[in-house]
Design goal:
F-box_dom, 226 residues
């Protein structure tokens, strides 16, 4: 992107008004053009303006109790964007759903040794219940978030190791709604045996397959054969 000399000299408040009207998909590229622009995207004012413009009702939301914090404007914008574009909640944009998605995705992607799935799942359930969701709604939303995160993890060695660890976790009896759904457990194995099949060595494959056989019967034929 070339920067016209007059455009490059615009004051910050005008640049912010321009940038927040550019598609979000281009923001990363814009922030790389000039140091001044990068600083705007690192600061709070641009994200406050983006929140007010894109999600005008966000400023009416009160802070919530629970283990997952709301964060500053950039985090809130990301959470609302996720809620709007990844989850279908009858047209409703639920900010806390976006925050829990970001929380879980970061725990799985950025941690070299993330907490067990039961701890992560319990944290999400506690957050929804603290925000007034029913037990059934908390369990349903948590399952949707797990499935969305699993489907959006990068396909790399770290993700393979995380999925393998999730698959090999021992079954722990937890009362509803703290038990993970069947769909979530199935998706972990499905991704391992489809998207990450080439990552297995002989021993790992049969270890994970044995875990799958203890959880599901029958095993899909597409999972068989190393």
């Amino acid at each position: 992107m070339s920067v016209d000399s007059s455009f490059g000299k615009l004051p910050d408040h005008l640049l912010i008004e321009i940038f927040i009207r550019v598609p979000v998909s281009e923001w990363a590229q814009i922030s790389c053009v000039k140091k001044q622009w990068a600083n705007l995207f690192r600061g709070e004012f641009l994200w406050q303006a983006a929140l007010a413009t894109t999600f005008p009702l966000a400023n009416q939301a009160k802070r919530w109790p629970g283990p997952i914090p709301r964060g500053l404007s950039k985090r809130r914008f990301a959470a609302l964007y996720v809620s709007k574009h990844i989850f279908s909640l009858d047209g409703e944009i639920d900010e806390i759903v976006g925050h829990t998605y970001l929380f879980l995705k970061e725990q799985l992607e950025l941690s070299t040794m993330p907490p067990s799935s039961s701890i992560l799942h319990g944290t999400i359930i506690d957050q929804f219940i603290a925000c007034g969701k029913s037990r059934d709604m908390a369990h349903d939303l948590a399952s949707q978030i797990w499935l969305a995160v699993l489907d959006n993890l990068e396909e790399n060695e770290h993700t393979f190791q995380i999925l393998k660890r999730l698959a090999q976790e021992g079954d722990v009896f937890l009362p509803y709604p703290y038990s993970r759904s069947f769909k979530v457990q199935w998706r972990v194995f499905e991704k391992l045996f489809t998207d990450f099949r080439d990552c297995f060595d002989h021993v790992d494959y049969y270890d994970v397959l044995a875990c799958a056989k203890t959880k599901f019967q029958p095993i899909p034929s597409t999972w068989l054969g190393y």
